[in-house]
Amino acid sequence: MTTATTASASRATSARRAAPAQAGAPAKPAFWPTAILLLGAGYALFPVYWLVAASTKGPGELFTTSTLLPSFTGGFFQNLGDLLRFNDGAFIVWGGNSLLFSVGGAAMATAVAAAAGYGLAKYDFRGKQVVFTFLLIGVLIPGVVLAIPQYLLLSKVGIAGTYWSVLLPFAISPFSIYLARIYAGAVVPSELLEAGRIDGANEWRLFRSIGLPAMVPGLITVFLLQFVAIWNNFLLPYIMLSREETFPLTVGFYSMMNQGSDQLNVYNLVIIGCLIAIIPLILLFLFLQRYWRLDLVSGSLKG
Amino acid sequence: MTATTTKKRLRPVAAPWLFVAPAIVLSAGLMFAPLIYTVFLSLQGRRVPASGIGVATDVFVGLDNYLRTLTNPALYASFGRMIVYALIAVPLTMALAVVFALLLDNLSSRLTRFSRISIFLPYAVPGVIAALMWGFMYLPGVSPLGEILTTVGAPVPDPMGPGSIFFAVANVAVWGGVGFNMVILYTSLRGLPQELYDSARLDGCSEVQLALRIKLPLILPGVILTGLFTIIGALQVFSEPNMMMTLTNTISSDWVPMMLVYRDAFVTNDLHGASATAIVITAVTMLASLGLLRLMRSRAFGGES
């Protein structure tokens, strides 16, 4: 009993700062909680392990050798070479497109959300609630339902099939606006804005020099969330784009799979391609962990 | 004092509108205009002139397309499949996310950092790639489970058979969805004042009771939020079954409503019918989402505040 209370007391003080999970002196280790968590970790990691093992298999080996053990017959580098040569380097182009869509789309969405979130959080104006609802209701419209008329309308404007036809729809993200509003409300000090106004600063200047700097940590999270959402998205580019050289990776893999298995080693290429495609995002997580302010999403934000 | 006059002067009128203007313009142009255009298309149909000669033109046909879509058995079948899929995927995702989050917050758990990062990892994997990875692993020749079963002489089940396909597709969604929800809920748990638990512990409350009776009710709003997003995601499912279609014949091109709409619009070129179906689906999903939100709100917050 005493050990438990002191442990929780020391934890209570250290837990206020976003300390690593085991910062406080923890209680006596227990078997089941750890075992269940490790089972979960195994479930999450297993397909990735399988992907690594499968990527080492040469063209004939995928269906003939044990799938749980990697092969060391040089299959990995052969697959890698074949993948890079596939369709005159299509994979590299797709990867570049994925990066362009993700960085460009997330940057635009974050900029739009920052301005809108700040405007909604820091001003009182007639019709504010209507505007907020109008901006948020988009979350409930299914992607396919939206993407088809978007495609038709953007065709009329003449930009369907171009990079812009993917970037523009990604620039508006209701969820990002919602998060930016919550964050702006929590961290931008109203007194400072008032003081600035009394000193005669205009509203844009207040936003630039007080609002934005305070919002940066939250905006990084908004950017990262939108970056991942775009990187992982398949639907919008699938509907918008028709020329292979404009595809992102997700649509590229689909087109490879759809060419059918008459090209014998297409599975090998897709498997190693998937592996390479998920590595950048996994690195993004591991190295940018402290920028993921997910308390923003959970609503447990403390200003 | 001057307080009232400054207040008046300090209430900018145009500025807030300028800040929200880009979002309003983009939403209007890329969300509401397309939606209205879909309604417009759904009321039109391609008809050949009555004389029988001449080119087909788009004319106003009233609710014909809606009648056609609402009497189409394929729509109901796809809704049925989507519901079966969602009934498997959503509860599993949420239950696992809640359990893992509570275990991560449990003081006697070990290796929590490793587990948290591992379980979160699938969030970084695009849904279509997850569908491909699992799809490959479901293939009888490549399946790791099949390999083990063959060595012990047991029959190898086909995960992409007619009945098990729902579990096969749901598994892809569960695998990809648990980690994000878990981290959100875990963050909620970390945001709770830890002092709350001390008196409960002093009263002899076990860690399991603490988790279920105290922590879980406190993070209920977070559970509802993540649950709602999981449900909305399940109602809109498209990419994963669409990708798995390349690996199995069990998934038809109208397997879920979204696939049906896509096929009608782009493969069979029945844009007007597809628009009517799209409007019906949007109405159903919106009503379902808003209804759920209202129901959960009253359940979660009705008692206290």
CATH class of the domain at 90-298 in chain A: Mainly Alpha
E-strand count of chain B: 2
Q: How much helical structure, as a percent, in the residues of chain A?
A: 55-70%
Mean pLDDT of chain B: 87
Round the mean pLDDT of chain A to the nearest integer and report it: 84
Discrete helix count of chain B: 14
The CATH level-2 architecture of chain B is identified as Orthogonal Bundle
CATH structural fold name of chain B: MetI-like fold
The name of the CATH superfamily of chain B reads: MetI-like
The count of β-strands of chain A is 0
CATH architecture of the domain at 90-298 in chain A: Orthogonal Bundle
Task: Walk me through the topology.
The complex is a heterodimer of chains A (303) and B (305).
Chain A: H1 2-15, H2 31-55, H3 75-85, H4 90-122, H5 128-136, H6 143-157, H7 163-171, H8 174-187, H9 190-198, H10 203-232, H11 235-240, H12 249-258, H13 266-287, H14 295-298
Helix pairs in contact in A: 2-13, 3-13, 4-7, 4-8, 4-10, 8-10, 9-10, 12-13
Chain B: H1 3-9, H2 14-42, E1 44-47, E2 57-60, H3 64-70, H4 73-105, H5 112-120, H6 127-138, H7 144-151, H8 165-190, H9 195-202, H10 207-218, H11 220-235, H12 239-244, H13 257-267, H14 271-301
Antiparallel strand pairs in B: 1-2
Helix pairs in contact in B: 2-14, 3-14, 4-8, 4-11, 5-8, 6-8, 8-11, 11-14, 13-14
